[in-house]
Amino acid sequence: MEEKKVGLYGGTFSPPHQGHVNAAANFVRAMDLDRLIVMPAGIPPHKVVEDPVPNEARLEMCRLAFGEIDAAEVSDFEISKDGLSYTVDTLRYLYPAYGKIYLLCGDDMLLTLDRWRESSEIFRMAHIVCMRRYDTDASKLYEKAAEYGERFSASVTFIDADPLPVSSTDVREMLKRGDGAVAGFLSDAVLRYIKEKGLYESTLEG
Which residues fall within 8 angstroms of residue 18, CB to CB, at 6 or more apart? Predict the structure, then answer.
């Protein structure tokens, strides 16, 4: 088993924008991670992916987006496996090699984590790290963390984030409209890749 602090950051990442990259960098810095595994979801069980693009394209965009973070590496485990992508399965895959994983989640994820598949196993294999937005009611989050501690002996750490005010849905809409402002939310490499491949029906030129 590798004696390193390893973090896991999962998501659809369609496309991966600077908000995702900022979150990953904050995660690595706050938890002093030796390695960050970025895990694009294959078939997420909790959401319908709008405007799907090929899995290989999402992988390549993640490699381009997160490549500026030295500790980050992109895994194709969930994309390559059959069936839905459940966090507990991913943790079971990683746990033998690394032991307890630092799992990054957002406010909404933290509040519903006990309803995820085999949540008790998630809490056994992962130390939960919640990236708390400044505009969130912190009291609800702390209450939930305390509940998880009592029910599952879970560990929850809070780190603050000043997130980029954009979502992947917003970015996809900007790309469809040909809105040049999207350049402020994507790395140059990712934006260039999207244009070259014609992803998200991008109407941007050049």
Answer: 164, 166, 184, 185, 186, 187
Domain boundaries defined on the chain: 6-165
Which of 132, 111, 131 is closest to 7 using CA atoms? Answer: 131
**Secondary structure of the chain in the HEC alphabet?**
CCCCCEEEEEECCCCCCHHHHHHHHHHHHHHCCCEEEEEECCCCCCCCCCCCCCHHHHHHHHHHHHCCCCCEEECCHHHHCCCCCCHHHHHHHHHHHHCCEEEEEEHHHHHHHHHCCCHHHHHHHEEEEEEEECCCCHHHHHHHHHHHHHHHCCCEEEEEECCCCCCHHHHHHHHHHCCHHHHHCCCHHHHHHHHHHCHHHCCCCC
Give the pLDDT confidence of 62-88 residue by residue, as tens digits: 999 999 999 999 999 999 987 788 999
User: What's the whole-model pTM score?
Assistant: 0.92
Cα 68 from Cα 197, distance rounded (Å) = 22
Give the whole-angstrom CA distance, residue 129 versus residue 131: 6
What CATH topology corresponds to 6-165? Rossmann fold (3.40.50)
| Mean pLDDT confidence for 112-131 | 96
